[in-house]
Amino acid sequence: xxxxxxxxxxxxxxxxxxxxxxxxxxxxxxxxxxxxxxxxxxxxxxxxxxxxxxxxxxxxxxxxxxxxxxxxxxxxxxxxxxxxxxxxxxxxxxxxxxxxxxxxxxxxxxx
Length: 111
What we know:
Elements: H1 2-6, E1 13-18, H2 25-38, E2 42-47, H3 65-90, E3 100-101, E4 109-110
Parallel strand pairs: 1-2
Antiparallel strand pairs: 3-4
């Protein structure tokens, strides 16, 4: 909330790993609520995949592939919706554009 007070139009992205062992339906709903509250511009979503030799590989309550796929799909859909809202809000804005080029005389000179 503090960041949005300073910069209300900030574009924030996040990476989420979905389906970690013991992730409950309530945990997932809390993730959805958090994503909506923060209004991420883009969400990169990955299903948890157990790796042999890691502690999580042996955890009980592994999440099924079907549930992980469903949760990933839900978050990707939400990501698309939030990204569209963000982009739609830009249509009414005017931005300054600076073109930068590299030259032997000036490094990264903005015109």
